[in-house]
Write a structure and sequence with these properties.
By secondary structure, this protein is of the alpha+beta class. It contains two helices and four strands. It has a four-stranded antiparallel β-sheet. Bound molecules: copper (II) ion.
């Protein structure tokens, strides 16, 4: 398992953070996601043999936010 912290811009409230979290957890290989709109971060625990950072970023962007 690996843990990475991504910086996410565009999250304005807890609902945004929830949407980002759900988008990450929907990916095969993501086991945990802690998302904070206050800190603009997404801390993701994932299995690197099943999913990679490009897919994490793509899921966040598809949810309508950007990764910086
Ligand atoms: Cu919001």
């Amino acid at each position: 398992m690996e843990t990475t912290t991504l910086y996410v811009s565009g999250m304005a409230c807890g609902g945004c953070a929830h949407a980002v979290r759900q988008a990450l957890l929907a990916l095969d290989g993501v086991v945990e996601a802690k998302v904070s709109h206050v800190e603009a971060t997404a801390e993701v625990r994932y299995d690197p043999s099943r999913v990679g950072i490009p897919q994490l970023k793509a899921a966040i962007e598809q949810a309508g936010y950007s990764v910086t």
